[in-house]
Amino acid sequence: MRTLPSAMQALLDTGGPFIGDAGAPHCRVTIEPDWTLATSSSEETDDEAKLPFRWFQRIANDQTEVEVPNVKSVNWERGIDTDAGSCEIVIYNQWHFLNIVSGLVSTLGDPGHFSPGHGNAEASSEWGQTANTWADRLIPGCLLRTYEGYGGKSKSVLEALDDGNLVITGVWLCDDVRVGTDGTLSLSCRDMGALLIDQQIYRPLTEKYPLHYYRWDYTDVTFPGAPYYDSSAPVAYGPGSEGPKFVTDIDVDPDSNGYWVLGSDGGVFAFGCPFFGSRGAIADVDNGPMVSMASAPQGGGYWLAVETGAVFSFGDVDYFGGATEPTASPVVAMAAVPDGLGYWLVCADGTVYEFGSAVHYGDQPNTSGWDVCDIVSTPSGLGYWLLSESGGVFTYGDAAFYGSVAGPLEFLEVCVGMAVAGDQAGYRIATNFGRVYAFGDARLYAESSGTWGVAAGEPPPFTLNDPIFSMAATPTGNGYFLVGGDGGVFTFGDAAFWGSLPAPFNYQIRSDGNYTDYADIIRDLVLWAGWLFYGDDEGDVYGWIEPTGVFSDEDLPLDMFDKKAIVDPINQLRETVGYIMFIDEAGAFVFRSPNLFQLGSLLEDGTRTTSIIELDDRLNVTDYMVSLNRSSVRSSLTIASHDPDQGMDGVVVTTRDIDSPYLRGMIRPAMLINDHLTKADEQATMLDRIITLIHYSLRQGTVQITGHPGIGVDDQVRLKERITADTYVHYVRGVRSSHDCDSGRWDMSITTSWLGPDFEVA
Amino acid sequence: MVVRWQFYDPTVPETYTVAINPNEGGSRSRKKAIGYVNTSGPDGITIAFEGRDEPERITFSGVILTQAHHDAFHTWFDKRRQICITDDLSRQMWVYIESFDPRRVLSVNYPWKHSYTCSAFILDWV
Q1: What is the pTM for the complete model shown?
Q2: Taking CB atoms and an 8 Å cutoff, what residues of chain A touch B81?
Q3: How far does A720 lie from chain B, in Å, by closest CA?
Q4: A261 pLDDT above the threshold of 60
Q5: Where are the beta strands (DSSP E) in A93-231?
Q6: Could you give the CA distance from residue A557 to residue A561 in angstroms, rounded to a whole number?
Q7: Nearest CA to CA, how far is B107 from chain A (Å)?
C-alpha cells in the first residue's frame, strides 16, 4: 500500500468531486531519453559485492526525464499472476505550431510530429517535413514513466510531484509502437519484468554468472606430510564426517568431447559438456564415497558408482541395477558396455559384478596382495581388462593382452587407471605419480610441459600438487586425460582442455549450515538483470527480496538456469516456496510471501500497517462482481518428495484431508511431487499454505472504483457492497487502471480474493 | 469610425478586410469537460470528474451584400490552415474556420444579399 500525499488522500477519502485545479484527474508521461541497460560502475553503488551489474535504476533518482506531450490515454495493469505488467499509452500524433513556418502551406500544424523517422529525407522532400527531437525517441526499447493523481495540471511534472498532485504509477519498457492515420500514436509497454523475461541466461555470453548453487562450503585443508597421497592415512566419507574429499574419476562425453570430473562426495563437475546431475549433498552416510563413473557410450548421461556397490543413473540413461547390499570388498571402478545397455562393477578383491547387458567373463582373485583398481571394456563389449595397482593386466572375454607395467614402481606409486586406445590394439596405464605406460599400438603423447617418460626408476618429471586418481581416453583413442585428486585436469594428444576444478579444491571439508537461501539466488539473478538493491539494512530499500528460509538439499541443476529466461528459475523457486513476484509502481523488484496471513498491508519500506483502504459502494465503488467457484477445491492434498509409486526408498509423504461444503462428499485428491521438499515439516508448511490459497480462491471479485493510486498488488482492502453482502477483507491480486485524459475519467478495476469472513487481526 | 474585421493569412501573406462587419457574435465560447459516474450503492453518491476543456470556439454572423464579399468568405473557408482574425475590438485570435453557412435573402437592390453564420475554433489568442 502506498502512502499518498495528504491532499490526495483527503480527496479520495471524501469521494471527490474530482474537478478544478486541486482535484481534476491528472496524468502525465515522461521518457528517459538516455536510458540504456549498460554495465555499471561503482558510481552507482558503494557495495563491491554488487559489481559488476547492469542497471536501469539510479540511487539518486536523478535521471533526466522529458515529458511526452499530447497524452490521450494511459491504461495499465499489473498483478501477481503475470510475470510483467503491461501498459498502453496513446498520444495525439500532431503538433501545432503557433508561429507559422514557411513551407507548411498545406497542413494544419505538423501531423505525425512524433512518428519515428519523422522528417527523414524522403518525407522531407515529399511533404516538407522537418526532423525534430522526437524522431527517434518514441521507439521500441524506450523507457517511459507514468504519473497520475489529482489536480496540478498547470504545473510541470516535477512541480506536481513535489506538491503532491502526482505519484508515479509505473516504469515501462516499450515493446511496440503503432502509428495510425487516425492521428494517434500508441505505445505498448511492459513493466521492467520484461528484463527478466527477455534476457536469457546463456553461459557463453555471461561472465560472472551464478549457474551453480552448492549446498556446502568447501574449506581447503592442507594434507600434512608427504607431497603425495598417503594411502595409509585414515579416511572417512559421507556427510558429517571430517574426512577429506577429493576427485576420484574422470570420463569423457562422447557427444561433445568434454568431460566430467567426479568428486568423492558425489559431486559431478561438467567441463565442455552438459551436466545431468550428481549425488552431491545427498545423505549417503551408509554408502560411502563415490568411486567411479561411466559415461553412456551413446551420450546423454552417465552412471555413478558408490564404494558399497550402489549405482545412480543421470541423464537419458537407464538404471540397470546395483548391489542390493554392500559388497564384501569395496567397489573401485565401473565400466559401461559399449551398447549402453549395461555396466560392470569391479571390487578391490577382483570380484566383477555385471548389470544389464554386461556379461560376466570372470573375476581376478587377489593372490598377489595388490588390489584391482580399474576395469575397462573391450571395444566390442565382449570382454574386459582388469588392472591391479601393481600394473598387472588381466584379460577376460575377447580382451587381448598387450603387456603389463614391468615395474618396479616408485615408493608409494600405484597404478590408478587404464584407458583403451579407441580402435587401436592397445591400452595405456597411468600411475598416481602421473606416469603413463603405453602398450600395443597405443602411443604416448606430449603434455604441454614436455613428454612424459616411462623409464622405471626415474623420478617423476615434475611435482604434482595432488596424485593422479584416474585417466580416460578420448573417443578417437588419440588422446587421454589425467585427473588429479585436487581436480586438476591434464590433457594429451587430441584431448581438449575445458577446464579444471577451481582452486581451492584440495581436500575439502563440508561445513554444515553454509547454504544458499533461495532468496540469495534470486538476488543474484535480479542484480544481473539490471536492478539495484541498496540500503537494505537502513530501510532505504529499492525493491524487496524476502528471505525464504529454504535451501537446496543438493546442487540446483544446471539446466534450471542455462539457456533460460531469467524469470524461469525465479518462478521455479518462487513456486517452490509459495512466494509472489511483481514489479511495483516505481519499477522495483518485489519478491516476498503473499500478504495473506495477517490483517494489514505492507508500505513501501516493508513495514506493516493494519489500516487498510475501504472500498464502499456508497463512496467509491462504481461496479462489483463476485464469483464463487469450487474448481480448486480438493478433498485431500498430498506432498511427496518423489513419486510414491516408484518404490524408491526414503520417500517422504505428507497428506491433509480437507472437508469442504462445496464437495458434498465427492473425492477429488491432488498430489504435488517436489524433490526440494524432503522434510515432513517443510511439506506440512507448504500444505498449510496451499490449503490457505485454495480457501482464498473460493470467492474472487472484480471491483471497479475511481482511480486510487494508493492501492497496489498484494494489498488488502475491505469491501462493502450491499448486493453481494460483502463486508470482508479482500486480497488484491491485480490492478487495472484506465485513464482517459480528454474526459478526465480515471477508473481502476481490482481483482481480489476474499480472506474469509473472520479475517481479523489476532 | 468603424473598425473593420480583418483576416490574415501569414503564409502568403495576405490580409482581407471584411466588407461589412458581422453584426452578431464574435466572442469566444468555452466549455469544460465534466463527466459523472454514480457509485453502485442505491444510497451512493455521484462522482464528478473533470477532463480537458473543449476547444474554444467563435461564432459570428452577419450580412453579405456583394458577390465579392460572398466569394471572399468562400475563399477564406477553403484555406486549410490557421488564420488570424482581428475584430472590431482589436482582439486578435488564431482560428481555423470550421463552417461557413450563407443563406440567400431576396433583395431587389442587392441580388447577392445573404445572411451567413461562420464558426471557427480558436487555437490561440494573441
Answers
A1: 0.65
A2: 100, 104-108
A3: 10
A4: yes
A5: 94-95, 110-111, 143-150, 166-179, 184-191, 200-201, 217-220
A6: 8
A7: 38
Report the residue from B11, B47, B96 with minimal CB separation from A16: B47
Q: Name the minimum distance, in Å, from the CA of B6 to any CA of chain A.
A: 18
Inter-chain residue contact B51 with A743, CB threshold 8 Å? yes
Q: Average pLDDT for residues A32-40, to the nearest whole number?
A: 82
pLDDT by residue (tens digit) across A219-247? 444 433 222 233 333 333 333 333 345 77
Residue of B nearest to A707 (CA): B49
User: Is the Cβ of A23 closer than 8 Å to some Cβ of chain B?
Assistant: yes
What is the secondary structure of A561-575 as a DSSP string? Answer: TTTEETHHHHHHHHH
Which chain A positions have a beta carbon within 8 Å of B122's beta carbon? none
C-alpha cell at A243: 574426512
Residue A286 has pLDDT above 60, yes or no: no
Answer yes or no: do A624 and B124 touch at CB < 8 A: no
The yes-or-no verdict on residue B71 having pLDDT over 90 is yes
Instruction: Identify the pLDDT of residue A623.
Output: 94
Asked if the model's pLDDT at residue A712 lies above 50, the reply is yes
> Among partner residues A96, A618, A721, which is closest to B123 by beta-carbon distance?
A96
A137 to A63, A181, A273: CA distances (angstroms): 16, 19, 44
Percentage of chain A beyond pLDDT 90 is 43
Confidence bin at A737 (pLDDT 50/70/90): very high
Contact A545, A589 (CB under 8 A): yes
Chain B residues close to A96, C-beta within 8 Å: 123
Q: Locate the chain A residue with the closest alpha carbon to B125.
A: A98
> Are A618 and B49 inside 8 Å of each other by CB?
no
Judge contact between B113 and B63, C-beta under 8 A.
yes
Ranking A138-142, A260-264, B55-59 by mean pLDDT, the lowest is A260-264
Q: Tell whether the model's pLDDT for residue A506 goes beyond 70.
A: no
Q: How far is CA A342 from CA A259, A308, A336, A346, A715, in A?
A: 20, 18, 6, 14, 58
Residue of B nearest to A108 (CA): B81
Note whether B51 contacts A105, CB cutoff 8 Å.
Answer: no
Chain A CB contacts of B38 under 8 Å are: 622
User: Nearest residue on chain A to B55, judged by CA atoms?
Assistant: A742
Distance from CA of A168 to the nearest CA of B (A): 20
Higher pLDDT, A427 or A492: A427
Q: Which residues pair with A383 in a beta bridge?
A: A397
| Residues contacting residue A190 through CB under 8 Å, at least 6 positions apart | A84, A85, A86, A87, A172, A173, A175, A197
Tens-place pLDDT, residues B106-117:
999 999 999 999
pLDDT band at A496 (very low <50, low <70, confident <90, very high): confident
Strand partners, B29: B57
Q: What string of DSSP letters covers A588-635?
A: -EEEE--S-SSSSEE-TTS-EES--EEEETTTTEEEEEEEE--TT--S
**String of DSSP letters for A416-476:** EEEEE-TTSSEEEEEETTS-EEEEET-----BTTBPPP--TTPPPSS--SS-EEEEEE-TT
What ipTM was assigned to the predicted interfaces of this complex?
Answer: 0.81
Q: Per-residue pLDDT averaged across A17-44, rounded? A: 85
Residue A312's beta-bridge partner residues?
A304
- Least Cα distance to A601 among A519, A689, A712, A699 occurs for A712
A104 touching B, CB under 8 A? yes
Chain A positions touching B35 (Cβ under 8 A) are 743-745
- DSSP β-ladder status, A601-602 and B92-104: unpaired
- pLDDT for A251 equals 93
In the chain, the amino acid numbered A478 is N
In A, which residues are within 8 Å of B48 by CB distance?
16-19
CB count in 10 Å sphere of residue A169: 25
Between chain A and chain B, the number of residue pairs with CB atoms below 8 A apart is: 104
